[in-house]
Structure formats: C-alpha cells, structure tokens
Design brief:
Elements (H helix, E strand, L loop, with lengths): L6 H7 L6 E7 L11 E7 L3 H10 L6 E4 L5 E3 L4 E7 L7 E4 L3 E5 L4 H10 L2 E2 L11 H7 L2 E2 L2 E2 H4 E7 L5 E5 H4 L1 E2 L2 E2 L6 E8 L1 E2 L2 H18 L19 H7 L6 E2 L2 E3 L7 E3 L5 H19 L8 E3 L4
Parallel strand pairs: 2-5, 3-5, 4-20
Antiparallel strand pairs: 1-2, 6-7, 7-15, 8-16, 9-10, 11-12, 11-15, 13-14, 17-18, 18-19
Helix pairs in contact: 3-7
Protein name: UDP-N-acetylenolpyruvoylglucosamine reductase
GO molecular function, one term: FAD binding
Pathway: Cell wall biogenesis; peptidoglycan biosynthesis
C-alpha cells in the first residue's frame, strides 16, 4: 500500500533542508526482521541541526517515527503514515573523552561503543557488546544485558523535541526504569555521553569476547530477528515462561519462536509482519493461560496493519 506524496509541500516549507526526504520508501530493507511496509515519507537528516530545522518546519499534525539501525523494530505491513526519521551517517560519530567518558551519536551500534571503551581502557561498558541495537534506542529503552544497563553508565544525552528545540538531558531527566526511560516521548535522541572507570584493555576485550561466545551459543544472532521479544516480568524470565507454555519452536506462517532461545522471534520463511506479530500475541496468550503472567513486548511495533 502506498501513501499520498507529501514531499512537494514539505520541501516548499523547508527550502534550507539538507537531508534526504523521499516518499513511499520500503522499510523492510532497513530493519532486521526484513518485513513490513512503506514509510509515507523517509527523512534522513544530515546532522542534528538539519533534524532540528526539519522538525521546526514540520506540521505538528504529521506523525513522526524514528528508526536507526532497525534492530528492535517491527514495521507493520500497512506501512508507517507520516514521516519516518532515519538516523544514519550524520549520527555515527564516536569520541573518547577525558574522565573515562565516551560520547556516541544515536546511530552508533552499541557494540562499537563497547569496543571504543575497551580499546581506551575504560571499564563498565562491555555489556553493550551484548545489545543488538544503536545508542538512540538504548537510551530510549534503558537497554541492558549481562549485568549492566544504560542507567549505570549514563552521564547526559542530547535530543531534539517535536518543535525542533535541542535539549541536554541529565540522568534525573531520563527517569530510567527497567527497560524504559520516561523522558518525553517526542524527544529524538541524537547522542549520549557515558562514563566508565579505568580498566585494563586486554581484560575488557576478553570479557567482550566471552559475551560474544555466549551470545553465539545461546541466541540466534545470525537469523532475521529483532532481539529479545518480551521483557522479563518481575520475578520471572520470559524464556522460561515461554518454554513452560510449550511455545519453543511455535510457528505462525513464515515466523517461529527460536528453538535455541525461545524469547526470540525468527523470520525464516518470508514472514509478513502480520505473521510475526500474530505469533508474538499467540505466545502471550499461551503464557498467560499457563502461568497467569502477562508478557510485555520489548520489540517496538510501528505502523498500521495491511
């Protein structure tokens, strides 16, 4: 399904725009599930200033959705109305600063931050090696793995609001909770600043290699998946609840729950986004029926059904 082309009116309202603004662009190619529909408008800003300018000139009635590397995202088959902002090359800067700090753009993969910190002898960020995503998403969801989470290393973040105003957010502004931040929903994070402690590069890299080995052995890292599907409910592990409900390997259409790690949804036979979401909902139903525990999606689902 295609949408009305908004580009002529948007470009007319933004004569100084530098980024790419394209109508009816497929999103399946830029998400890890490789499924889903079109973006009505796909905007790739050149940098933070370009993003700020765009948002300041955009009709506030037009919805805005953000994607970076598309790891933790399921795009529904009917596509995404409004504008999808894709943070890419203009947001992939990474710098090591004094005081065991690392500054990273929102599009920098988490693993690259872990590696930069390790090579600089900064401890405390190795856990980022185990998170399949980019810094913007990690900030939004307080991403964590292997005993660490963003709140542990966070110093500050830059973000642009829906009106185009740039904000610098402190730890208190982020209101971190388990797998979420309660910072204003309209903020688009552009970079984060993180702090660790002095460490030994060799030891940190060894710890990262151990995380890599554990992931390879226990997670379907080379499959079309979005990462962990459901958050761990208080006092439980999602994969154990899913397994106990008999959902390991459960299939709907071209999607199935991984046999290796049953909290991972896999697109292995050309699944539609509807297949993937229906499977997730069936797992939620069976888990609740079996244990009385309601699973909460960790995968971000965007757009409209076909």
């Amino acid at each position: 399904m295609s949408f009305a082309d908004l580009s002529p009116e948007l470009k007319a309202a933004m004569p100084e725009l530098r980024g790419r603004l394209l109508p009816n662009q497929p999103l399946a190619d830029i998400t890890w599930f490789r499924a889903g529909g079109l973006a009505q408008m796909l905007f790739t800003p050149e940098d933070e200033a370009d993003l700020s300018y765009f948002l300041s000139r955009l009709d506030p009635q037009i919805p805005v959705t953000v994607i970076a590397i598309g790891s933790n995202t399921l795009v529904r088959d009917g596509g995404v109305p409004g504008v999808v902002v894709r943070l890419a090359r203009g947001f992939n800067r990474i710098e090591v600063e004094e005081g065991c700090r690392v500054r990273a753009g929102a599009a920098v993969p988490d693993v690259k931050v872990a590696r930069a910190a390790a090579e600089a002898g900064i401890d405390g960020m190795a856990f980022l090696r185990g998170i399949p995503g980019a810094i913007g998403g990690a900030l939004r969801m307080n991403a964590g793995a292997y005993g660490g989470e963003i709140t542990d290393i966070f110093v500050e973040a830059r973000a642009v609001d829906r009106a185009g105003k740039v904000h610098v957010l402190s730890h208190a502004d982020m209101h971190f909770e388990y797998r979420k931040s309660k910072a204003a929903a309209d903020l688009i994070f552009t970079e984060g600043l993180f702090a660790g402690t002095p460490g030994d590069s060799t030891a940190i890299l060894a710890a990262m290699n151990e995380i890599t080995d554990r992931r390879d052995q226990t997670q379907p890292v080379r499959s079309r998946t979005g990462g962990s599907t459901f958050k761990n409910p208080p006092g439980h592990k999602s994969w154990q609840l899913i397994d106990a409900a008999g959902c390991r390997g459960l299939r709907v259409g071209g999607a199935h729950m991984s046999e290796l790690h049953c909290n991972f949804l896999i697109n292995d036979e050309g699944a539609t986004a509807a297949d993937i979401e229906a499977l997730g909902e069936e797992v939620r139903r069976r888990v609740f029926e079996h244990s009385g525990v309601e699973l909460e999606w960790e995968i971000k689902r965007i757009g409209v059904p076909a």
